[in-house]
Amino acid sequence: MRITLSIIKADIGSVGGHIKPSEDLLKAVKDFVVEKGKGLIKSFYVSHTGDDVAILMSHTHGVGAEEIHRLAWDAFVAGTAVAKRQGLYGAGQDLLKDAFSGNVRGMGPAVAELEFDERPNEPFLFFAADKTDPGAYNLPLYLAFCDPMYNAGLMLSPSMAEGFEFTIMDVSYTEGDRVIKLRAPEDIYDIAALLRDNQRFVVESIHSRNNGEIAASVSTTRLHNIAGKYTGKDDPVMLVRVQGAFPATGEVLSPFSIGHYVAGFMRGSHTGPLMPVVKNSSISFFDGPPVVACLAFCVHEGELTEPADAFDHPYWDSIRNKVSDKATAIREQGFSGAAMLPYSELEYGGIVEKMKTLDRKFTVRE
Ligand code: F6R
Ligand code: MG
Ligand code: MG
Predict the structure, then answer these.
(1) 16-26 pLDDT per residue, tens
(2) Best probe residue, ligand 1, of 52, 287, 340 (max atoms within 8 Å of C-beta)
């Protein structure tokens, strides 16, 4: 059966700052999808990661289907009404346009979609991150799909022997989708040369070279390119098919043990380590640290199973402790150097005015 998995997520308001949505908000989004999704979608699952609400849907309408995107948009509008009624902080934050225009892309919410012919058993992973941006997935995807140090299947499994094709997007280009296709293993130095720059080059999708099938899809939204000003970090979602011709679940999870430093954290303007957390986690220290959750599902004839919470295991406790230590370590140097993002990535316009004022006060000594 040919099915589509669509994950559409938005921050539409949260309790006590940019922490987590309210129970009533989540209920409003779920109730809306139950009611209006009848006959349209096969199955769905609503969760939150920090202040972002994600709607995972399985259906047969393909990628970019207007009715699916409209369902998610309208569910977020319904959730926003509750957020406003409760006085939640940042109510409707990511709904940047007044009216739905056929596709949520470019309207604020993030979207990642996969369309494929279902295997007899079809396991996949849904990732959602908060207080960071889409480039946060660059390193984990590189390591899981290119490096036998993390993916033993690249050595051991004949079904991954031919490697993978990466589609990488230049997200600083705003006139359209500027993309390049590169192949692992022969292009891995070129892939690394692009993916080291998390703010400019972002993995959009990955395909198996053994069977041509899509393996992964990442949301590539950069909100400040849409809004032209700070509206929050882009808090990316990702779908990854696993097992068989794709990496095993544990091979995709493996690089998240690094707790690598990513952009985001307080005011979207700092560097912080990415902490793997359990589902429906909230946000704390310095509006962070940046977090990533992973839910593992199977889908059969379009029906989703219940999720397995991939980072809810004793192994990840020590990783979380390590990441806390890394977060404290970089926070000790406050605004200095590597702890904050470069000027071009600072998410608050106030600094631009400040720099202009200071610039006028400079004098050049004879
Ligand atoms: C980062 C984030 C928070 C806010 C911060 C200030 O992505 O959402 O760190 O930037 O709490 O929020 P505002 O500007 O809404 O007062
Ligand atoms: Mg928020
Ligand atoms: Mg968020």
Answers:
(1) 999 999 999 99
(2) 287
Q: Please write the tens of the pLDDT for every residue from 173-227.
A: 888 889 999 999 999 999 999 999 999 999 999 999 999 999 999 998 766 555 5
The model scores a pTM over 0.85: yes
Ligand 1 pocket check for 267: Cβ under 6 Å: yes
Residue bearing the CA closest to ligand 1, atom 6: 267
d(CA 107, CA 94): 8
Q: Cα 48 vs. chain centroid, distance in angstroms?
A: 12
Residue 237: in which H helix or E strand, if any? strand 237-241
The size of the chain, in residues, is 366
pLDDT tens by residue, 117-144: 999 999 999 999 999 999 999 999 999 9
Structural domains of the chain, count:
1
Question: What is the residue with the minimal CA distance to atom 15 of ligand 1?
Answer: 90
Range of the domain at 260: 2-356
Does any domain span residue 16? Answer: yes
How much distance in Å is there from the Cα of 295 to the middle of ligand 2? 22
| 363 occurs within a structural domain | no
Would 40 be classed as within a structural domain? yes
Tokens matching residue 153: 């299947």
| Tally of CA atoms within 13 A in the half-sphere of 209 that contains its CB | 18
Known catalytic residue at 230: yes
Cα 235 to ligand 1 centre (Å): 13
Which amino acid, residue 52? Answer: D
Residue 75 lies in a domain: yes
Q: Is the CB of 18 within 6 Å of ligand 1?
A: yes
Burial tier of 359 (Cβ tally within 10 Å: 0-12, 13-18, 19+):
exposed
Please indicate whether residue 147 is annotated as part of the active site: no
Q: The tokens 């739905």 sit on which residue?
A: 100
